[in-house]
Design a protein that fits this description.
By secondary structure, the protein is mainly α. It contains five helices and two strands, in the order H-H-H-H-H-E-E.
Amino acid sequence: MSMAKKDLTKDDEKHSCDLAAYFTHLQLQPIYKIMTLKSVLNQAFKLKINKTVTSFATRLLELGPAPDTRKILSVCEKNSIDEHPLKYDEYNLFDKCTASYVPIYLYEI
């Protein structure tokens, strides 16, 4: 999944952010989970996906203190609107298609 993300062009930043968001749900050791959450947090913040950034920041703060994360969280809580909504739904259980890396949600809303 990480290699597929690297192969995307600059124009496909939203899809790249989707892939990074799915990657945060893998069972990783805490240090790697922190790295993936920081990565997707920064990427989503640049794309102004503030509502989703709030979720990532909260999950990151649960793993350990991070002053930059608190700043980003406070900015995003003031304006919690996603300018470019992702296909990612953190509350719906999903599995990933191994060919296309598209989520297969357990419960379609």
